[in-house]
Amino acid sequence: MSSLLGPVTDADQRRSQRRRHVLLGEFLDLMDERELPLLSWKVGDHALVGEAHQFSSADRRRAYREWVTALGLEEWAPSTSDTGRTHLHAVAENWRGRSVPVVVVADVWDNDEDGES
User: Most buried in the list 14, 32, 86, 104, measured by CB within 10 Å?
Assistant: First the structure.
């Protein structure tokens, strides 16, 4: 992997990971302040990723929507598979100029037992 300024170094990657960790702490504070639903967060190699894992599709969709709104993310078009699973995906390539890509996702099913999706 490289950039316009040359190869990405281990030090570059460590700084990026630290930025993602700091931002995750801020998101957890935001969750408490605004009483946002829980997401499962992953500090990945290329982004900070939150995933809704609530029991019902309706609750996953609601959690996804609340976080997308709170963070001001750009939604991609949902994709639905032939199994009835719809993947919801929203991103910010450089969240508020912080040099951290942020992604929030959720998978919902048309035939969820709660009657909603």
Answer: 104
